[in-house]
Amino acid sequence: MSQLERTIDAVRGSQMLRLFLITGLALVLLVPIAMIWGLVSERQNRNREAAAEVSSKWGNTQTVIGPALILPYTARWTETTASGAIVHTGVRNAVFLPKNLRMKGRIDVDSRSRGIFKVPVYGLNVSVEGEFGQPNLVELGIDPSSVAWDRAHLAVGISDVRAIREQSAISWNDRQAPFMPGVNGFTEAVSGVHAPVAASAAESGYKFSFPLALNGSLAVYFVPFAETTSLQLTSNSPYPNFQGNWIPSERNVSENGFSAAWRISYLGRNYAQSWTTGTVVRKAIDESRFGVELAEPIDRYRMAERSVKYAGLFILLTFAFVWLIEVLAGTRVHPIQYLMLGAALCVFYLLELSLSERLSFSLAYGIASLAILGMVAAYSRIIFRHGQRAIAIAAGVAGLYGYLFVLLTNEDAALLAGSIGLFAILGGIMFVTRRVNWYSHGIRVPVSGPGSDS
Prior knowledge:
Layout: H1 3-13, H2 15-28, H3 30-58, E1 62-81, E2 84-96, E3 100-114, E4 117-133, E5 153-158, E6 169-172, E7 175-178, E8 180-181, E9 192-196, E10 205-217, E11 219-222, E12 228-235, E13 241-244, E14 250-254, E15 257-265, E16 274-276, H4 282-287, E17 290-293, H5 300-309, H6 311-329, H7 335-356, H8 361-384, H9 387-409, H10 414-432, E18 436-437, E19 443-444
Helix pairs in contact: 2-6, 2-7, 3-5, 3-7, 5-7, 6-7, 6-9, 7-8, 8-9, 9-10
């Protein structure tokens, strides 16, 4: 044998160089993994576009702000100039919130499809009632004689007024008044409805009630617009995701739906019970929203994205299993065969993504895992020409897929489970290779005991 042949044989037999080669092959496979990651993002964006298209026709996420009593008044202020003092007058609005606000509603959830994408939509029916106290004009520095009582109105902010299903009216101190378009001076809401109401300085308070019937999608929110705000919601959705600064004080979730109740004091928000035009409270109102999201229990695209994040690690660990079989069994696996196994592992993420768009994520994950396990087991049988070794490789890959599913479905414990799993895998590799003499490839040597001379 020539010196060149001996050198090539030594290189081929070097486990250190083979480790570097295997690592390099795993890095090469990150290229298709990056392409799959891009595909997940693309499908996720298409899902968002489908949701936006359905919402634009059915109704967007709804936010109900109000009700609020609006009192127009004439304001006078003095401006000092070089030529003297000039008195200006103008019409402004005073906004007053209820003392008590009680809402009781039902959310009937359904879905609408755009191609293979399904979007959760709902119909909201809510009854609103409460009481206003006598507006405290002195607190805002308003002269009662400057108030245009005949132009008083009640305004309700609704984020998507296109989705109002039914014309409704307000009962105000047992008098009926129809709602009309626009918030009419209630600048804290972008859109909504208003109704003229009878108000005067002599009244001690006002009782009101009205119904709302709205379409919406994805979520519904309210604001605590009273000294005491209470809300009761029921729904046929078994997957509520409560959001906002307040979670329900009472809730019951079952496979048939949920019920929830909130009771909120105005002490927990960052705006007063009354203000005038020009007071900046819009941001504080937006920050005080609370409600419920009605999204799917498992976001398949988010789960697919999370699973792809582990792809590089799982390819490397699978290669490590194959390499261990090489070392322990004294066989040789060609780099092309490593690439074939790696390609099969990459296809898993494509199967998982495509199947999850038509099936539940858990079922899609199971089918994709079994398909790839069958392929890996059959190919390993060809590589090693030994059934037990193929079973060992398939068992290792099956363990990895089971481990990944635990990580995906237990997000809060993912870091703990991940660190423990990697610790166990590293410990297992160290244990099975404890008798390998790395200076003489494939030769097992006895482990030195406490009393040995070596």
